[in-house]
Amino acid sequence: MTSYLESLFSLDGRTAIVTGGSSGIGRGIASALARAGASVVIVARGRDRIDETVASLTEEGCRAAGVVGDLSARDGIRALAEDAVAPFGEPDILVNSAGINIRPPYAEITEDDWDATMTVNALAPFLLGQRYGVGMAERGYGRLIHISSQQAHRAFVGSGIYGASKGAVESLMRSEAEAWGHHGVTSNTLVPGFVLTPLNARLQEDPVKVAELAERTMIGRNGLPEDFAAASVFLAGAGSAYITGHSLFVDGGMSAH
């Protein structure tokens, strides 16, 4: 049984790059991939948080490294893409978890708000996926995993440009699945419900709203970063080879409510 499960889910010998991997859902996923055997490069803006995450995983016996990167501009994204391959080589797995969540009232959204959101949330996944996906296809194995949002599928709590950016990610995922599916590369999204992370800090200031969101789930609670561990290991491994172009909802049943 053990060898069978390893053939499906072990990530030994694989390399992963996780953007936004030092906090929230990204950290939960980076930790899961590392514990499953992958060599993981954690990409984020803050050196201190990267170092703390890498140190924690290294203490567990995992292989992890960190790269400080700027996803807010094209040049920064391209530079990061090259820096991230230095520790362990070209990746087999890319997880796009970094994101920003700007939510002014819709009539007050500026062009700068739009550009900033689309660059981090949509352009960075495109450029990184294109940069690494070609090599994955040449090697015959690749896993592209994007963190999406309920607001890519429905509008609520002022989805605004954040929802639009995540809708772009869903379409990007399907385009990647079409482009490289014949070459052993899959592309999928993980769709959270409301997850208690720094990205949602503003909304967490309203305990009534937090409780209301928990009531919208079938399970009766809001999500945690560790809820994404099993799903991410599954989508990153050999066992998911026939699953691509798919949105996997990790939301406690919120989307079915």
TrEMBL record:
UniProt keyword annotations, A-Z: Oxidoreductase
Superkingdom: Bacteria
InterPro entries in the cross-refs: NAD(P)-bd_dom_sf (IPR036291), SDR_fam (IPR002347)
Gene Ontology MF terms in the entry: oxidoreductase activity, acting on the CH-OH group of donors, NAD or NADP as acceptor
Family as reported in the entry's similarity comment: Belongs to the short-chain dehydrogenases/reductases (SDR) family.
Name of the featured protein: Gluconate 5-dehydrogenase
